Amino acid sequence: MYHFLMYICTIKSKQNMKKQVTEFKSFAQMLDVLNTDEVCREFLENIRWEGSPACPHCGTQHKEHYKLNVKGEFKGQYKCKDCRERFTVTVGTMFEGSHISLRKWFIAIYIFSSHKKGISSHQLAKDLGITQKSAWFMLGRLRNSFQSKINVQFTGVTEADETFMGGKNKNRHADKKVEFSQGRSVKDKTPVFGLLNKGKVTTGVVTDTKAKTLRPIIEEMVKKGEIIVTDEWNGYKGLSPEYKHEVVKHNEERYVTDSGLSTNSLEGFWALLKRGIYGIYHQVSAKHLNKYCDEFAYRYNTRETNDSDRFNLSVVNATERLTYKTLTGK
Ligand SMILES: [Zn+2]
Known about the structure:
Elements: H1 14-20, H2 27-33, H3 37-49, E1 66-70, E2 73-79, E3 86-87, H4 102-114, H5 121-128, H6 132-145, E4 157-165, E5 190-197, E6 200-205, H7 211-221, E7 227-231, E8 244-248, H8 264-279, H9 286-301, H10 307-316, H11 324-328
Parallel strand pairs: 4-7, 7-8
Antiparallel strand pairs: 1-2, 2-3, 4-5, 5-6
Bound molecules: zinc ion (ZN).
Zinc ion binds near residues 55, 58, 82 and 85.
């Protein structure tokens, strides 16, 4: 249903992060510091466990789990003191079961999260010296890790707006051309809905932009009694009178309400999303569009975070494993 209702980028408190992570002044420095797979593994252990390994099988976390040597060397294999199962730090993360080295993963994370418009799987494959299929899979897992749960309702001013993603008429085959395709409600375009509150955006694909679809989303996400700013689109009519609904009259070529509010920030985000998707990713199927929305929302929401903190945050978020099957839907 409303996939995006469940997800938004949560930024873990900086103080919390600072305790566990290394600051990198640049990409070059990150490459210098995280220079072997062993160092990368220790870095991940530090971020995930803070010195006390946690068994993913039974959940116990303490310093007494056994360290197993392979050919006389410790390479991150642990044996649980309680349930006796073996584990490594990558179990349950997006790195689990991957033949790509942890260091290449970290490089991919850095590039992917710091480049404003993202990176294509072709470019990433070239940069890392891996196949395009592997790069595509890595990007899928990365995108997946950029989602995290939202558990508070928005207060203050929230902008709500919708946009349509899809190809342009001039690129379409003659019999597939659609009239008025630059406007709303176009059949072959995919509607995307978004909310922007205190500088953070949350977006997702919706089935349509009718009031029956948008109203429940707004009412679930935004606290009653707070301010909603929209344009005059029908989909926003009939919102609960408990909201202070401010309407921007785009039809009258006005871009702010009488009290000075607008949907300009969210429209700025749409512009970024469209430039990014059409520019780098060329075309995205409706099925994958949600993940691209999350990817661009993540970058947007961390735009004031420096590359180093964003990298650390992305590694922290890298805890969910996504299989090839889930990714491709096959
Ligand atoms: Zn255990």
